[in-house]
Amino acid sequence: AAWPHQEIKGELVAIPRRNFDNVGASASVNSSAYDMAKWMLFNLGKPGELDGKRLISEQAMAELYRPVTAIAGSNREAPISSYALGWSVTTYNGYTLYRHGGATDGMNTNLIIIPEKNLGIFITTNVFNRFMTALGNEIVDRFIGLGPTDWNAMILRGFQNQKARVQSLRDEIHSQRVTGTNTSRPLSAYEGVYLDDLYDNVEVKLGENGLELHFWDDETQIADLEHWHYDTFRAVWRNSAQREKFIHFTMGREGQLNELHVTFTLRPMLLQVGIYPTNYYRDVRFVRQD
User: Fold this and answer.
1) Does the N-terminal peptide bond of residue 277 adopt cis geometry, omega within 30 degrees of 0?
2) How do residues 91-146 score in pLDDT, each as one tens digit?
3) Alpha carbon of residue 209 to chain centroid
4) What is the tally of helices (H) and strands (E) in the chain?
5) Strands of the chain, DSSP E
6) Burial category of 9 from C-beta neighbours within 10 Å (exposed 0-12, middle 13-18, buried 19 and up)
7) 253 CB contacts (<8 Å, ≥6 apart)?
8) What 3-state class would DSSP assign to 8?
9) 69 — pLDDT class (breaks 50, 70, 90)
């Protein structure tokens, strides 16, 4: 079985596997090239049939491919783009392409089917990258008879430009750090259990090397707190693949520490740069229980 990798601080490293039971089929299905070949055959030819046996009705299969939601950002090569039930649907040089990808902790996939050509393409790697997109586009172009396009150079150039832009935003966050500050209370005062109705409990403990953040009584979900400035800390996960996040404490009117605020990154702008900056996040307020 392939082992997941990520680029962390400019170095490609193997990362530990995590338990994804809580998100079910979104990240818990383990498959193979052989299985995916069967899946593509199931969606090509007579969709819903495999090895001559009808498993899903034609009507149900047609519903899976029916566009439901328009997707912004279409371009000249793919002027119409939408999302069906689990398929991204685009038009490309007169053909309809159905795509689906996956990206979880370094495992990365790109699946494309073109019914008019009875063509299925499945590309998988064990590190996040955009080479899969370039390779998929190259294969599609060759099968539909288009001239050469240097997709690799084009997509690589776009990635490098984005990486420089996102790195600049991260550097800006670091430049706003106020140096020479102290916490408003001794570190022991921050210890305690904090609770959110949806996100459950998180506990702050004082360890040998400083404050620690323990999520959900799970020994695999522990972060060490680095003092950032004032009552703000950067929580650095012990599983380096999870990177880091910002948290801060607030006080009540009487000066007591009563809330812990955690900024959860839902999607980083570019993971190769880091878990932040992000424009897709959630701030969660945990209330102290003791």
Assistant:
1) yes
2) 999 999 999 988 888 899 999 999 999 999 999 999 999 999 999 999 999 999 99
3) 30
4) 4, 18
5) 5-8, 11-14, 49-50, 53-54, 69-70, 81-83, 88-92, 95-104, 107-114, 119-125, 192-196, 200-207, 210-215, 222-229, 232-237, 244-251, 257-267, 280-288
6) exposed
7) none
8) strand
9) very high
